[in-house]
Amino acid sequence: MHIMKAIVYKEFGTTDVLQTVEEPKPTIKADQVLVKVKAFSINPMDWKIRKGEMTLMSGSKFPKHTGTDFAGIVEEIGSSVSGLEIGDEVFGVVKNMKDGVSAEYVAVTSSLIWKKPVNISFAQAASIPVVGTAAVTALEKMGDISAQTSILINGATGGFGMFLLQLLKQTGANVTAVTSSRGVAYAKKWGATSVIDYTKENVLSRQAGYDIVVDLSGKTGYENAKKIMKSSALFLNPTPKPIQIPLSFIKNLFTSKKHIVVLSSPSTKYTDTLLEAVRNGLDIEIHKVFPFAQYKEAYQYAEQGGYIGKVVVEVN
Ligand SMILES: NC(=O)c1ccc[n+]([C@@H]2O[C@H](COP(=O)([O-])OP(=O)(O)OC[C@H]3O[C@@H](n4cnc5c(N)ncnc54)[C@H](OP(=O)(O)O)[C@@H]3O)[C@@H](O)[C@H]2O)c1
């Protein structure tokens, strides 16, 4: 039996519950591909699941791997898979919150891996699926956008914001980015028309001037944001509580300011849009790469915040 190293946890908790184990290398089904993982990216969802905040979707069965999007090299191909060869450099995602990619090898459904562009690193490719798809989904939810549309992105220079700002740039919209002092130059480079440093100014003290508010910080909330939204503005919420999903649908029938839930699911359609943007120069900023052996430090670092773009763990 072939053995590999993996990062798992056997109970919910802080980074203290993460541990390295040796376990059998996965075997693949006919529609799967075995990938030797070179890098996986860290997403806030990883620690929300690990802390037991998403049990409705993640379940409570242990041990659990962590991590959702990854990049690596094709090692084995299932009998019904076409279009890939052993040795191809790929990136992809596990869609099911019960799975995780924090191991030397991962078995993935072939519809959720794509060839890595040659001009980006494994770390950059591993950073595309989760936040990239979320950004394209948010853009879709915004509907028709013109140069007159005034958009506020709160928390604009993390992973999600980095993609969303650059995708919005192509629309010509008037985008205000809210970030910390270290993110100001990045927000401007990625296309923000104006930037608010949240360490110096409270965005909620502004006038009701926005057609769309996207809260990526998870700290503002719809009720607070209403005061800076125009009368028929949209509030995009990518971190809804389960109850908000049906509730917002009902409440929106009676209010002119709408609460819109953003839930994304990676697919080839979204990835094609993102790969096109990467070909056109979309910048994927990797703030820090940690070696596999330092995965705990990687998660502690990412959870603390204060970084631009993405934090990635490199495997081998
Ligand atoms: N629904 C979906 O499908 C989906 C998909 C992907 C992500 N998400 C969610 O979307 C959110 C953003 O994801 P992400 O990957 O971009 O996370 P991230 O990289 O941690 O970015 C969050 C950003 O918020 C900023 N921030 C923190 N406090 C703030 C404040 N008081 N005011 C303004 N900005 C503040 C942070 O800046 P500093 O670190 O400099 O403080 C950081 O840049 C997360 O909650 C994530 O779980 C949802």
Automatic annotation (TrEMBL):
Annotated InterPro entries: ADH-like_N, Chloroplast_QOR, ER, GroES-like_sf, NAD(P)-bd_dom_sf
Any Pfam family hit: ADH_zinc_N_2
Domain Enoyl reductase (ER): 13-313
GO molecular function: oxidoreductase activity
This protein's name: NADP-dependent oxidoreductase
Organism encoding this protein: Dyadobacter flavalbus
